[in-house]
Design brief:
single chain; LUD_dom; Rossmann fold; NagB/RpiA_transferase-like; 6 helices; alpha/beta; four-stranded mixed beta sheet; elongated; six-stranded parallel beta sheet; FTHF_cligase-like_sf; LUD domain-containing protein
C-alpha cells in the first residue's frame, strides 16, 4: 500500500467512526427588528435615488406618475408582479411582460425605458434594497441592464440593519437564489475621483415605498 492509499484509508476509517453529523443548516433564531421607514427613505434619497411614498390601493397611480414624469415609453415587467400596477399607464406606454424563460438580448434590454419590480427585504440603516429574484423581481439582468429601475418596496419588508436582513432572507429560504443588493443608482469613481453613473447598473433608481394602512 502506498503512503497515499494508507492516508486515504485512515481518513475513511476516521470518518466512519465519527458517524453522520447533523443534516441541514443550523440557523439560530434571530428576532428581526422592524426598520424605521422614514430613515430608510432618507438614506435612499441620500444616494441620489428618487423616493415616492404612497399607500396600498394607490400604487398604480404612483407608478403612472413616475412613468409619465420620466417620459418612459416602454416598461419591462417580470412575471409575478402585481397586474394592477400597470393599470394607470397611458396607451403610449408599451408593457413588456417577461418570465424566466423569455429570451431577450442585452440590446433589447438596453432599449427598454425602465424595469418595474417588487423587492424582498430592505435595510433602514443603509438604505439598501435586496432582490431575491423570486416572483415579481425577475432575473438579474432585467434590473442591471436597463438604464432605469422602478422598485416597489412594501414598508413591512423594511428591517433595521444588515443582520436583520440576513435573518429575514434565511427565514425566506433564499439560500439557493442569487441576491442583488441595491444601494442607490449605479455610481462609481474613476482614478481621479470623478463620479461616473450607470456603469454597473441603472443610472436612475426610483423607489416607491408603500406605507402600511
Amino acid at each position: 500500500m502506498s503512503a497515499r492509499d494508507e492516508m486515504l484509508a485512515r481518513i475513511r476509517t476516521a470518518n466512519a467512526a465519527a458517524g453522520a453529523g447533523p443534516t441541514g443548516r443550523l440557523v439560530p433564531p434571530v428576532e428581526v427588528q422592524h426598520g424605521d421607514v422614514d430613515l430608510f427613505c432618507e438614506n435612499v434619497a441620500d444616494y441620489r435615488a428618487t423616493v415616492v411614498r404612497t399607500r396600498e390601493g394607490e400604487v398604480a397611480g404612483a407608478i403612472g406618475r413616475v412613468v409619465g414624469d420620466l417620459g418612459i415609453g416602454s416598461l419591462l415587467v417580470p412575471a409575478g408582479a402585481d397586474p394592477d400596477w400597470t393599470t394607470a399607464l397611458g396607451p403610449e406606454v408599451s408593457v413588456l411582460q417577461v418570465d424566466d424563460g423569455t429570451a431577450i438580448s442585452y440590446d433589447e434590454l438596453g432599449a427598454v425605458g425602465a424595469t418595474l419590480t417588487s423587492s424582498s427585504v430592505s435595510v433602514a440603516r443603509t438604505g439598501t434594497i435586496i432582490l431575491d429574484h423570486s416572483a415579481g423581481q425577475g432575473r438579474r439582468e432585467l434590473t442591471l441592464v436597463p438604464d432605469r429601475h422602478i422598485c416597489v418596496v412594501a414598508a413591512r419588508t423594511v428591517v433595521d440593519d444588515v443582520p436583520d436582513a440576513v435573518a429575514r432572507l434565511a427565514a425566506l429560504g433564499v439560500e439557493q437564489r442569487p441576491l442583488t443588493w441595491i444601494s442607490g443608482p449605479s455610481a462609481t469613481s474613476d482614478i481621479e475621483l470623478d463620479r461616473v453613473e450607470g456603469v454597473h447598473g441603472p443610472r436612475t433608481l426610483v423607489v416607491i415605498v408603500v406605507d402600511d394602512d
